[in-house]
Amino acid sequence: MGKKIHLLSQSQLVDAIKENDAKILKELYTSNYPKVEALVLKNSGSSAHAKDVYQEAFITVWTHVKQNKFTPQNDSALQGYLYRICKNKWTDVLRSKSFRDVKPLNTDTIKVVKAEETHNNLEDKKLKLTMTAFENLGQPCKQLLKTFYFEKKSLKEISKELNIEENTARNKKYRCMQKLRAVVLASK
Fold first, then answer.
1. Of 47, 113, 153, 158, which is most buried by a Cβ count within 10 Å?
2. Which UniProt keywords apply (predicted)?
3. What is the mean pLDDT of residues 112-118?
């Protein structure tokens, strides 16, 4: 069916749903959602609540149509039926104990979250300092450290690439790390 749902009669729409016509189901779904979202938002809900309620209601309508539990009575019966189910489901949510008993975060939780944020900020600052210090190292040190730490090459491989002894490569790596530490500590 290449028709838009507003051009279909209610019985054609019901038949399309029974046949699982993907285009019709998608159009029915997307065209009716804004009304439900508006209802939920006006009545203490969020977009997430609206999506949950609408999903459940849409599946309920789809199931009722498939099981012949719904017969259209007028030109907008299916859309009205979907809206009514959404409204009833949202009313149930509003009446539920879990919705009414939303508790604020306790002060211990807030302290933990703030401590984590502070810790993350410090880690970010340390990383930025280290990366800035790394960028300011001389090219031979940058290359040696990058090869060892980022490319994960062994000192043996590095010594072959640089055409030096393995012990020399180890000493250079140590001196470069000391230089990096000194630059980081000096910039604090």
1. 158
2. DNA-binding, Sigma factor, Transcription, Transcription regulation
3. 70
> Regarding predicted confidence, which is higher, 75 or 10?
10
Mean pLDDT of 126-141: 85
Tell me whether residue 115 is in a domain: no
Instruction: Provide the pLDDT for residue 1.
Output: 41
Whether 47 is covered by a domain: the verdict is yes
> What are the residues whose beta carbons fall under 8 Å from the beta carbon of 138, sequence distance 6 or more?
none
What's the pLDDT score for residue 108? 64
**What confidence tens digit (pLDDT) does each residue in 18-55 have?**
999 999 899 989 999 999 999 999 988 899 999 999 99
Number of separate domains in the chain: 2
CATH number, position 15:
1.10.1740.10
Whole-angstrom Cα distance, residue 89 to residue 78?
Answer: 17
Alpha helices in the chain (DSSP H): 10-18, 22-42, 47-66, 77-95, 97-100, 107-135, 139-145, 155-162, 166-186
Q: Which two tokens stand for residue 81?
A: 């039926």
Do 17 and 53 lie in one domain? The reply is yes
10 with 97, same domain? yes
